[in-house]
Amino acid sequence: MRWPHGKVAAASFTFDVDAETYLLATDPDSKNRPGLLSQALYDPKVGVPLILEALAKHDVKATFFVPGLTAELHPDSVSAIVQGGHELAVHGYTHTPPHLLSLEQESEQLTKAVDILTAEAGEISGYRSPSWDVSPNTLGLLEENGLTYSSNFMDDLTPYQHDGRRIVELPIQWILDDYPHFGWSPGEDSGRIRNTREVEAIWTEEFDGIVAYGGSYILTMHPEVSGRPSRVALLERMMDYVAARDDVWVTTCAEIATHAMHELSAQER
Ligand SMILES: [Zn+2]
Predict the structure, then answer these.
(1) pTM for the structure as a whole
(2) What single string gives the DSSP state of each residue in 113-135?
(3) Which of 144, 118, 132 is nearest to 175 (CA)?
(4) How far is the CA of 221 from the centre of ligand 1 (A)?
(5) Helix 196-212 and helix 229-243: axis angle, to 10°?
(6) Per-residue pLDDT tens for 215-244?
(7) pLDDT in tens, 8-29
(8) 258 CA to middle of ligand 1, Å?
């Protein structure tokens, strides 16, 4: 991949604004558990504002993947994200992973989410599925809904085009997600509460590696998890670390995807 303006790699800070949608999708009875819900409601109430403040301080434009239901339940959070100049992208409607939905259900939920977010942001081009667990129908449905990129697959370090499709993939991986490092929940056996310095070492080493390979560094965070004070400080250190490489293009996923699409089709010609 050739990157614009003489850059050697790209980087994007991304946030999945799940709020309570992931709890309701797993167990609708969660709505009767205010203590449990409060863990998720930290996301719009405190996490998003602290993260927006940190991004503004470092002059970084990020991509926020938002379930349609989050946008309906927390419209002020979504307005604040848009007003901050950040990109909005789709993260399902109910936070149900597509592999658990029929084609009809997946299609209906995707179109609903695209409509809700388009009304907020004007234009939407990207999609990240809940839990990065897409179905065989997902890529076709993205095209049908006019979306141009996916950020769901773990099989590369550099953007690529899916076979026979227009959709550009911006590859991600659990190593660059805050949840496996920090996302502890009662009763769950996944994740644990780690020291931020340990995670910083993992994330900066992976950044150095992806830059050396000329790839795209997509960091995935959740305001519920990374909106805690110690982790906002980690986010700030990561923004400093990435900014110290002035040969790395720091931008939104939409910008990276648009560039990649032009570059990949130019290579084909
Ligand atoms: Zn999510």
Answers:
(1) 0.97
(2) HHHHHHHHHS---EE--GGG---
(3) 132
(4) 9
(5) 30
(6) 999 999 999 999 999 999 999 999 999 999
(7) 999 999 999 999 999 999 999 9
(8) 24
